[in-house]
Design goal:
Rossmann fold, 48% helix, 2 domains, alpha/beta
Amino acid sequence: MRTLFVSNRLPVIVEKKAGVWTSHTSSGGLVTALVPLLKRGGGMWIGWPGPSEAQGAELEGVLEQFSEQQGYRVAAVPLSTQDYQRFYQGYCNEILWPLFHDLQSLCNFNPDYWTSAQKVEQAFADVVEAHAQPGDLIWVQDYQLMGLGRVLASRGLQNPLAFFLHIPFPPPDIFMKLPWRLDVLRGLLQYEVIGFQTRRDLANFADCVHKLLPEVERRRNPEEVRFEYEGRTCAAGAFPIGIDFEEFAEGAASPEQDARLEELKAIYMGRQIILGVDRLDYTKGLPYRLRAFARALEKYPELHGRVTLLQVVVPSREAVPQYQKLKAEVEQLVAQINGRFTQPGWVPVHHLFRHVERTELLAWYRLADVGLVTPLKDGMNLVCKEYCACQVEGNGVLVLSEFAGASEQLGKWAVEVNPYDIDGVAAAIREAVLMPPETRRIAMERLRANIREENVYWWLEQFLAECRVIQEERTERFTTPLAR
């Protein structure tokens, strides 16, 4: 079964060097996992190529060359910068992103954004329809394109349709605030397989369908929920995404990282390093985390001079006022903490606001004695998995928000926290720092074993296996002769 993988962006970066257009693959675990699948099955990746001066035939030529070099096809969805801005910055980032992270007060329910989203969905459907062959699995990724299944089904496309949501799905009382809630739900039910990160997200979706579309029949079993709607069967399940464990573990254990680790230990003079790595986003709970660290220093003076918080913030959406305000708040909190607690030879918070090279990130992951992962809400959060994979000595402690999707898999071996509980997170920081070596080793060993087993390739196979089951059932349903 050939796969047409559809996402908001193509996994390609197009740029001009010395007057010549070049292209290369963007990074990420999803790209790493899917490329072998696409190469093996002759599949295709469909998406927006991103802003580029290359246009028309020039862009097509660059992408054609990229396809030949990579061994799988890519197809670009042509969108004007204005359409993309209203769709992505408006509908996706001012409505769906905050709403699905339980931050509905930050939503801007501009009806023009919904109109733009529908226009963009039609553009994506045009490209999918142009390239789809009979029997191809069309696998749509993430919240930006939830409505694509509805458009494809309305055009009479007979291909199996699948969808995976990488962010959380909200409970009914929050989802109901979306003005186009029925359109979104009905659109999702056009997919034959829907994947969520956690059982909680699956339950929220099922509850929304039950409350808002009571005519839809539901059948539950331990692994999935089946929905019958307008003559179609939709199977929804939880498929937690993983990382390429071996890639991170082997990279962190390389001789180059051995040397870098010794350099970093000398710089930090044997202090325990508490590491936070986050994209600049209000869902990551950075102000709460910094206040909790300040509270830990205030309540537990034995931590003074013993720990350093290394907080890496990767720039994101810096032109958006909310993100500018968040950046300023983070910088102010860091300055306040350092101004209050710094001693000669010890600065409690080292704050880096920049993009991070992979080799540098691996070194920090391996160095850190405590991984501090405290989002207010996350679909999964792969930073905690990357951190554990890089803990090749097995000495680290994971402090993990109970509202990260990863807590469903890893929470039993981590120090779980409510990120809104300042005193609770402060106490967890102290617990992690003072945790006995043997307790650390046992917990990290179990964390790494889970992440190694339930890696990104396991996730891919679990989801595709469900797609094959549904496709076989569909084929049997349409080929079984009627009883006389």
